[in-house]
Amino acid sequence: MGLPNPVSLVQICCLKMAFLKRQGVSLIEGFTESPPLNRYNFIMHEQRDMKNEPRPSVWITDAVTVTALGNTLWESWQGIVAGQTAIRPVRRFSVDSCNARVAACIEGLEPSGEHSMIHALTERLLTSIGPVPSDALLITATTKSGIDNLERLHQGVSADDQDILLTSIADTVSQKLGLTGKGINISAACASSAIAVARGAGQIASGMAEAVLICCLDIVTEFVFSGFSCLRAMSPEPCRPFDRDRDGLSLGEGAAALLLMSKERACREGRECLGTVMGWGAANDATHLTAPARDGCGLIQAISQAVKKAGLKAEDIATISAHGTGTIYNDMMELTAFREVFGNRKIPVYSIKGAIGHTLGAAGGIEVAVGLKTLSEQIAPPSVGLAHPEGWASGRVSPEPADISGEFLLTTNSGFGGINAAIILGRAI
Amino acid sequence: MIASVTGIGWVTAAGTGCGRDHDRFVMADGQLPELTGKMVFGKRNPRFGRMDQYSRLGVAAIAFALRDAGLEEWTVKRHIGIIVSTVYGCLHTDMDYFETVMPHEEGAMPSPHLFAYTLPSCFLGEAAIRFGLTGESFAVNDPSPRGLAGLRMSLDSIACGEMDKMLCGVCDANCPPIFAGTEGNNFRPLPAAGVTGALFFMIEKDPETNLPPYGELDLNDKGDILFNKTETGSLESLVHGCLMLDA
Questions:
Q1: Can you tell me the distance from the alpha carbon of B161 to that of A47, in angstroms, rounded to the nearest whole number?
Q2: What chain B residue is nearest to A309 in terms of C-alpha separation?
Q3: How distant is the Cα of B105 from the closest Cα of chain A, in angstroms?
Q4: Mutate to test the interface with B, among A284, A289, A360, A416 (most CBs of B within 10 A)
Q5: Which residue among A40, A231, A285 sits closest to B223, beta carbon to beta carbon?
Q6: Which pTM does this prediction carry?
Q7: What is the ipTM, given to two decimal places?
Q8: Would you say B202 and B6 are in contact if contact means Cβ atoms under 8 Å apart?
C-alpha cells in the first residue's frame, strides 16, 4: 500500500506552509520570537474542514543518536542488529544498596566543571547532526534533565543549579544551534519524546511550522537508579523484554535528535527523506500512577488514534517497535494491547531495551531513529535477552533479526501517570 | 471560535476557588494553603493526602475547574486531555526524595512513594484516575512567565480535531528557598514562575452541560490568544476576562 498523499493536496499545503513560514507562525509560546503570525484563523478553519482529508507529509530529514552502543545512529544500529548489549555493571556511583547493579551507561560521559552530564550528552548529540534551519521550532524531551547536579549540590559539590530545570536543555540546544526560538520541553514520563514527536509532526501537518527539531535526552543518575531500585522495577541482570522469565527493566542513557520538515521545505533545501511521520496518538489509561492498565486500554486507544490519523489499517503495519521494558506488567500490557489490535497475525515485534537499556524520556526518540533504519533496511532488530517468549510474543518477538516486508512501522511508549503514546512511521520513498 | 471556557479553578496564596462560586481570584505572593481532601472534595481523601504538595495543588485546581464546568462527576471514562505548564515542576519533591537517598540515619531506605511523584506529569495521572480522563496528558516546561503554552497547545489539539475537551493551565509551588537566592548560598536564583499556585481552565469545543460558558477562545491572525475577541496576555488576565474583573 502506498502513502496516502495525493500530490495536489500536498502542493496546496506546501503553498500554505510557505506562506506561514514567511509569517513566522507558531502555536506554541516560546517557539518563536520572530514576527507575529498572520491569517491564523483562516488556516485553522481550513484545517477543520480538511481534517478528514490526507495531511501534508511530515518528513524526517535528519536523525542522530547517542547510546551506550555508539555515538552515531549507524553504530547503535549495527550493535543492536548484531544482538549486542551495552548493559554492564554501574561504576558511576555506588549501587551497593540497590537491587540491581547494571545499566547501559555511555562510555566516557562525564560532567564538565559545574555543568551536568546532560551537557556532555547534548554536546555529543549535536556533533553529528547536519544543518538545522535557524527558524526550526525546538521541542526537547527529558524526564530529569540535569538532576545529577541536584545530587552534586546535595553533596556540597559546586554545580550549576539551572541545569536541574527541565527547560535547561532547550536553552542549551537553542544556543548551540543558533535557533531563533527558545523552545520548550515536554515531560510525559517515558512517553516524553513520543509525545514531542507527535506535537512536532502536528505542527508541520497543520501548516503551523515547516521545520521542527526534536531533541530527547536522559542520563543514568543515582537519583533515578535508586528510585527504580526502591520501586523494585529493575532486573538484577540485563533485562529480558517479552521473556516469560523477565523480572524488570535495565536503565540506560542516550539521546536522539530528529529534524522534522514539511515535504515542500525539505525538497526546496534538497534534504533527504529518511522516513515520514504518518500518524500519532496519545491516551491516558486512568488506572494507576506507576503501573499500566492490565487490559491495555490506554495503549489500544493511542494505537487506534495513530492508525486512523495515518489513514491506514492495522494490517498495513509491517512491524512494531514496542516499549518492551522487561517489567512483568508493562510487557504483559503491551502484548494484550497488540493482540487486541493485531489479532492472530504474526507481526514482527521487537524491543531494543535489552541492547541499550531503558533511556526513559529519550526512549521514544531513539526508537523512532532506529525505526527509520528498520524500515530502510527492512530488518526488525533482535530483542536482546529473549530466551522464552511470553504468550502472544511467541513467533513474533525474536532474539534474532527478522526480515520484514512493508512500508509502515508502529512504535509505542508508556509511562508513569498512565500515559501511552503511539507513532507510525512511513518508509522513505 | 475554537473552544469555549466552561470552567475555572484555582489555588493561590490568597485561597482556593471556582469561577461560578463567585470566589475571589487574586494572584498573591506568599505561602500557599495546606490543602486537604476535605477542603477539595468535601470529605476525607487519604489518597489526596498522600500526594506531594505540587500534585495536591494541581489536582485541586483541576477538581475545581471540572466542578465549575459541571463535569466533576462521572460514571464512564471521558476523552478529556490535560496539559499543564510549569517552571519548577516537582522540584520540591525531587529534593525531598533525594533526602531519602542520602539518609542521615543508618539503614534508612529511599522512598518509593516520593519517587513516584518525581515527574512533573505524575499528578496528571492522579487527576486522570480520580476523574476518569483518558485524553493525552503531559507537562510542558515553558520558561515564559505568561504560562500560556499549555493553553495554546490545548487550543491546537482542539483546532486540529484531535481533542474536543481539554483541561489546561499552570501549576507551580513556591521556588524552594535554597534556589531563590535568599539563603546566602552561591546558587544562581532560578527564574520566577509566572503563577505561584495552580490555575486550570476547562475548555470545550461543544460545551457538554447547560451551564453558560464564560466566553470564547480563539487565535487571531498574529497567533495571539483571544478571549471574546480581545487579546489576553496571560492566564491571570484570562481569569479576569472570564469573571469580568478589573485587572
A1: 9
A2: B162
A3: 14
A4: A284
A5: A40
A6: 0.91
A7: 0.94
A8: yes
